[in-house]
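To fix ideas, we reproduce below one chain and its tokenised fold.
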Amino acid sequence: MFIVCASVNVRAAELVMYEQAGCGWCETFDREIAPIYPKTPEGQRAPLRRVNIDRPAPPDLSFIEVERLAPLFVLVDKGKEIGRIRGYPGEDHFWGLLAMLIRKLDAVGTGGQRSPSFEKSLRPGWLIVCIRDV
């Protein structure tokens, strides 16, 4: 019998916000949503990640087809796009559209969620994988 254990960096779901300097709707989002987003169930499920639309895309987001529109919100999970919100439609509509994306995330799979007790034992973003051969 042998046991192999390895740690693998696993990206949980995240909401990627493409923004640019001087974007009025980005500033409105920053006033209305950004301060409370991390405290909401949606924000804990899919943390906000900001990307400047005028700079090259980070390598781990190269699979996203970026539109020349700001803000652009893209919900991603495990290297795949789940859906997007084009522009900032105001506070009420934003939460409704995000809820639809989260439901879609749930339909696709677990949405990067693990059991709370297991989650506490790991560094954020890391998953321990053990394979046992008998």
In short: DSSP finds four helices and six strands in the chain. The chain has a mean pLDDT of 81. The longest helix spans residues 91-108. The CA atoms of residues 37 and 80 lie 22 Å apart.
